[in-house]
Automatic annotation (TrEMBL):
Subunit structure: Homotetramer.
NCBIfam families listed in its UniProt record: GPR
Protein name per Swiss-Prot or TrEMBL: Germination protease
Gene name linked to the record: gpr
Organism in which the protein naturally occurs: Tepidibacter thalassicus DSM 15285
GO MF entry, a single one: metalloendopeptidase activity
Role according to the record: Initiates the rapid degradation of small, acid-soluble proteins during spore germination.
Length: 315
């Protein structure tokens, strides 16, 4: 299961269930389905669940919606409100808490620019609190934000930059926004994950750096991410599945053979395709062609939800 690249807890759970047909021990799952979206809350609460899932202990909330990529006001507002509701459950409504928002990723690569774009739209207020020597405000909370870049640009580990900043300004919590990777094409740009377990910068493309979590930063870390890429092996596996579904539906002969191919486990198909692609260096990372507009829209959704959650005076 761990051979398939995914940053989503919901997909790690699905891969285990595909093999075992049972729920994972040490993991609690709640699911809510509405007309335009589905919210799945997964809590990993012991070491058994952590080991099986390959994810750290904590809460993982996944919002899935086909209207996430819609750029009309009605769809955007609906998704913002859903995200706001889930963020409020995790962040609470304590206006005295100081928040540092980190936009992870490379602003020069569109599919990895979700973090920096979101940070550019966040309402920062720390300078106002310092200027007017305020500890509390009815409408605003103290928020600071930074896009630290990636090591290829700065020469500095992102975790080192964030750690130094946390030690200096002493926030009560850190919110990290980043682009993720999915194992399913259908979830790319149509899923938001909120996690209380922190995040590993670069994990989405297999370039894992030191994790940003409470153990390292000494403050709670909430991660918000959207899968913006899949690798070529995942994409190929999905295309094969769609082709087999079509052949099964249309063929009068050979259905048993097609069903046999369809019955292969996801990991078996993935590893088979990956083994074929990698000798030719073809297991590339894939993202949709309209990623520019999608990232822009997603950054608006996440920043607006954060602004409303952290600043109760905003309407």
């Amino acid at each position: 299961m761990k051979n398939i690249r995914t940053d989503l807890a919901i997909e790690a759970r699905e891969m285990y269930s595909e093999d075992k047909k049972v729920e994972i021990p040490g993991v609690k799952v709640d699911r809510k389905e509405e007309k335009n979206y589905t919210v799945t809350r997964i809590e990993i609460f012991d070491e058994k669940g952590r080991e099986i899932m390959g994810k750290e202990k904590g809460i993982y909330v996944t919002i899935e919606s086909n209207i996430l990529t819609f750029d009309d006001d009605e769809s955007r507002t609906e998704v913002i409100n859903v995200l706001l509701e889930e963020l409020s459950k995790i962040l609470g409504n304590d206006k005295n808490k100081k928040t540092l928002i980190i936009g992870l990723g490379n602003w020069n690569i569109t599919s990895d620019a979700l973090g920096p774009k979101t940070v550019s739209r966040v309402l920062v207020t720390r300078h106002l609190f310092k200027t007017y020597n305020k500890e509390y405000d009815d409408d605003l909370s103290e928020v600071s934000a930074l896009s630290p870049g990636v090591m290829g640009i700065t020469g500095i580990e992102t975790s080192e930059t964030v750690k130094a900043l946390v030690d200096m300004i002493k926030p009560d919590r850190v919110i990290a926004v980043d682009a993720l990777a999915s194992r399913k094409l259908e979830r790319v740009n149509s899923t938001i994950q909120i996690s209380t377990a922190g995040i590993s910068p670069g994990a989405g493309i297999g370039n894992i750096r030191k994790a940003l979590n409470e153990e390292y930063l000494k403050v709670p870390v909430i991660a918000i991410g959207v899968p913006t890429v899949v690798d070529a092996a995942t994409l190929t596996s999905d295309v094969i599945d769609m082709t087999l579904d079509n052949l099964i539906n249309e063929s009068k002969k050979g259905k048993e053979f097609y069903n046999m191919l369809k019955s292969l486990k996801q990991e078996e198909k993935y590893n088979l395709i990956k083994d074929i692609l990698e000798p030719y260096n073809k297991n590339v990372i894939v993202t949709p062609k309209d990623i520019d507009e999608i990232i822009d829209n997603l950054s608006v959704i996440i920043s607006e939800a954060l602004n409303k959650c952290l600043h109760p005076g905003i309407n």
